[in-house]
Design a protein that fits this description.
Blueprint: E1 7-12, E2 19-24, E3 29-34, H1 35-39, H2 47-69, E4 73-88, E5 91-106, H3 110-123, H4 125-129, E6 135-142
Parallel strand pairs: 5-6
Antiparallel strand pairs: 1-2, 2-3, 4-5
Length: about 140
């Protein structure tokens, strides 16, 4: 059985002076976006931040699941995703994603934690979907 999730966006106007609004799911999260919020330091959000939030959330859940399957009890997992976009000859491209995660896990040593975290990174559905990105890096530490 397939699970379908929907989000939407509307854009009004030209690229540089237009504006838009993105709605995630059933409207639990939404926000404005503009050229400035995407390619400069303007107010609002952008698609890359939403990709980062999705990746951080997916990875955190995958890490929790992978830890539990290995017999460990995750107490807390905090993940921040940095989505790096660079201007290339063919236009802007997401070239790298860095997942910074800190976790409190009962009864685990550092090496085992890092091995499990890498497995979770490689297998979370969003990581799998984003394999076209140049590089997905994990920086993980135990709290």
């Amino acid at each position: 059985m397939a699970i379908v999730r929907k989000s939407s966006a509307i854009w009004k106007g030209g690229l540089r002076n237009g504006e838009g609004r993105m709605v995630v799911g059933r409207g639990y999260f939404e926000g404005p976006f503009t050229f400035a919020s995407r390619f400069e330091s303007g107010e609002g959000t952008n698609p890359e931040e939403l990709i980062g939030a999705a990746h951080a959330g997916c990875f955190s859940m995958a890490l929790s699941s992978t830890l539990e399957k290995a017999g460990y009890k995750p107490v807390e997992i905090r993940t921040e995703a940095e989505v790096i976009m660079e201007m290339k000859e063919e236009g802007p491209r997401i070239t790298r994603i860095v997942l910074h995660t800190k976790a409190k896990v009962e009864g685990i040593d550092r090496d085992t934690f890092l091995k499990i975290a890498e497995q979770a990174k490689d297998n979370c559905p969003v990581s799998v979907a984003l394999r076209g990105v140049g590089e997905i890096v994990l920086e993980a530490e135990l709290l």
